[in-house]
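Bug #77: duplicate submission created two jobs. Keeping one. Sequence:
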Amino acid sequence: MKHHILTTGISLVTNFVNAQHPRLSLSEALSRHVDVQKHFLADPVAASAEINSLNARTKFLVEKQPAFGATLIYTETAEGKMVTTLLEKFLKKQGIAPLYKIPVKSLDKPAKDATPQWAQQNVTEALTRMQQSVVSHITKLREKSPDLQIELNCTSGYKAEVAVLYEVGRTLRVPVYYLHESFKVCITLP
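Kept job's structure:
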């Protein structure tokens, strides 16, 4: 069996805005949860980078019998929570189990108030906690199922998260994959 650990971003919300309501702000889109969900469910691959890359790697939407679990790494922002909720419901409905979530501390201080020292301290703290949480999670998954094949899907999320998770993958010998929009296929990072 396999287990995919996915970074999550906000492509689901931004794709909704771009396709349906280009004049909406992200915060306004959050108040339209039902509309975002309808847009997502109409074409999950087009609406969500996470589903697009996971499906490109596993073909789970075609085969209809997924034999893998998943973990969603998300930032504790309103957008991150909304996207993760929608993805979690969708993946559960597709039969993907077990399903876990790993939150990443939100850096929600207004940019105008953030000093370089504040930014460095808080980003370091958030990324270090994420790294520790993912390493601990992978260790527990391996202890529970020694033959489990774990892969990191770093298509979505913040670039800094991807950099940290790439190092986790290299250290723990976990393949890290990525779907570039123009390739239409997942590549495993070296």
